[in-house]
Design goal:
6-stranded antiparallel sheet, alpha+beta, 11 helices, about 20% strand, Dna Ligase, domain 1
Length: about 400
């Protein structure tokens, strides 16, 4: 992999690595009382000038992309987190509620990997059979390599969810982002649901995440005496938008102009020659849908019909009515000219794995979560002689892991 070396971010990484004990103590002191998500995946951008989380998924769907060596080491992390989360409450039997688009063989591989991790942590695991968009409810899925993943039909039994054949579950692990809305059959049940349904895209907003993330980075940077801009991103939100009807277009353009100016001032401060750019994203979106990158307010005011159509609908044909404006951070990570970005997985606030998302059809600033993307494990790019030498946990990713924990 090629990347700029001895950059500002490399220097910050070295400085914080020398204070690892203090960093861990700061995080431990900050966690109490916070509603930490059960699991998450963080998309990171490392430009060399700065490193930040550019998106967070609290219903991660890429456990199949994680290194087996790293996952094997993560069993204890899962055990500790579950013990801390549930205490003495029953928790040995878990029902995973997946997405309904379960015909995707790679998503089936993800479910198989997630289920394996939970079982290795000592749990009994069932995966709910979900009705797909075609009205069919499959009895099993098949992974990309032909491994069967059995599914369990479930029903509502009063205020509990149970299997139609009498299976009983202590809690629900939600792996459905709820873009189409809350699952009515889960509402009001007695079993705990993790993560809670209120974090689904029917209610969650990217802007709320970035408000919290940026505040956390500000506090961390103050404690360790560095410019928080190095680990955070400028964001703003514009509501009441309809690109097809031209509603709110002028306000989006004005927001873009203001953000481009703010980015340029930071670039001038640090002597960065790049031209500033801004992402315009569906504020309630996922799967890389409803995203564009602009270099000028005119890019908004002069949108063509095709772009307006693209920016009018999110996942599941949900209308886009508010957008997040977000500082675009280019990636310096690449292999053979193909740009990449790190993706880091966590259970609670502990890292359980990471990999690289690549897209040969996109550039260093573009959204890589799009058609043409593929995934690489670090140890696939640089194979170790033995599992113990796997580089997926090497010290060079210390800052990646820290940002994901933040």
């Amino acid at each position: 992999m090629a990347s700029q070396v001895n950059s500002r971010i490399d220097q910050l990484s070295s400085a914080l690595a020398a204070r690892t004990a203090e960093v861990d103590a700061w995080i431990a002191k900050t966690i109490p009382g916070l509603p930490i998500p059960f699991y998450a995946s963080a998309d990171l951008r490392d430009s060399g000038h700065k490193l930040c989380c550019v998106d967070l998924n609290v219903f991660p769907a890429g456990f199949n992309n994680l290194c087996e060596t790293f996952l094997a080491r993560s069993v204890d992390i899962m055990r500790r987190f579950i013990a801390a989360r549930f205490g003495e409450a029953p928790h040995e039997r878990v029902l995973v509620v997946p997405e309904a688009h379960t015909r995707n063989p790679f998503y089936a591989t993800h479910l198989h990997g997630l289920g394996t991790l939970l079982r290795n942590a000592g749990l009994s695991v069932w995966i709910a059979a979900m009705e797909g968009e075609d009205g069919d409810t499959p009895a099993a899925l098949t992974t990309h390599d032909g491994t069967p993943v059995p599914l369990t039909p479930v029903r509502r039994d009063g205020a509990r969810i149970a299997g139609v054949n009498g299976e009983q579950f202590d809690w629900i692990l939600l792996n459905n982002d709820l873009s189409a809305g809350a699952l009515e059959w889960l509402e009001g049940i007695l079993q705990p649901i993790h993560p809670p349904m209120c974090l689904g895209w029917h209610r969650r907003r990217k802007s709320e995440f970035f408000d919290n993330y940026n505040q956390t980075v500000d506090e961390f940077a103050s404690a360790f005496s560095f410019d928080p801009w190095l680990l955070r991103t400028f964001t703003d939100v514009v509501t009441g938008v309809d690109f097809l009807k031209q509603d709110g277009i002028e306000r989006v353009a004005a927001g873009v102009a203001g953000m481009l100016g703010a980015i340029q001032r930071k670039y001038d401060e640090y002597g960065i020659a790049d031209a500033p750019q801004v992402f315009v994203k569906n504020n309630a979106g996922t799967y890389g849908i409803g995203i564009m990158v602009v270099q000028s307010p005119d890019d908004i005011l002069n949108m063509n019909r095709r772009t307006k159509n693209k920016m009018s609908m999110g996942k599941g044909h949900t209308p886009i009515r508010e957008v997040l404006l977000q500082e675009a951070v280019p990636t310096r990570v690449q292999m053979s000219g193909v740009v990449m970005e790190p993706v880091v997985y966590t259970i609670g606030t502990e890292v359980i794995g990471s990999f690289l998302r690549a897209n040969p059809e996109r550039g260093a600033v573009d959204n890589l979560n799009a058609k043409g993307m593929t995934f690489y494990r670090y140890c696939t790019i640089d194979p170790p002689a033995t599992p113990e030498e796997c580089i997926c946990t090497h010290d060079g990713m210390t800052l990646y892991q820290l940002v994901s924990r933040l």
